[in-house]
Design brief:
By secondary structure, the protein is mostly helical. It is about 85% helix and about 0% strand. The protein has helices at about 5-15, 30-85, 90-145. The longest helix is centred in the last third of the chain and has 58 residues, at about 90-145.
């Protein structure tokens, strides 16, 4: 179960709780609420593991992109050396090799930017979820402390 699902269940429990007449307050089943909080404590580490996985996956993708870019650059450099041995095509070979290197570097940068954006999007989503959870917990604490 995800944290947002637990929060939804808590809200549903609060909505279905009986209202104390003339007070605007409700009676909430303490055990239900404590069970929800315990469940959130169990799920919360999973959310953190997911964020860490995203971070690790981003690093793996970046590393893979770097390796691929280095391979492309090495291949381009090898091709340049081979073409230098040829007489008339040398100028064209240098131009093509430079283009390959530029393309590899451009592609590497695009992959890195895409990975960064993906990681930022996922981490932003996790951050929003955590903020919503913390706000809900804070609001519930304030609400229940105000009832005493």
């Amino acid at each position: 179960m995800e944290i947002l699902e637990i929060i939804d269940l808590m809200e549903e429990s609060i909505d279905k709780s009986p209202v104390v007449p003339l007070s605007g307050k409700i009676l909430v089943d303490k055990e239900d609420l404590l069970d929800y909080i315990q469940e959130m404590r169990l799920v919360f580490p999973e959310e953190i593991k997911e964020a860490n996985w995203v971070k690790d996956e981003r690093q793996r993708i970046l590393s893979e992109a770097e390796t691929r870019a280095q391979t492309m650059v090495k291949n381009a450099e090898d091709k340049v050396r081979q073409m230098i041995d040829e007489n008339e095509v040398t100028r064209q070979a240098v131009e093509q090799a430079n283009q390959l290197v530029n393309d590899a570097q451009t592609r590497s940068m695009e992959i890195k930017l895409d990975c960064d954006q993906y990681a930022d999007d996922v981490l932003g989503d996790v951050e929003k979820r955590l903020e919503m959870l913390l706000k809900k917990v804070h609001d519930d604490r304030v609400y229940f402390n105000g009832k005493q």
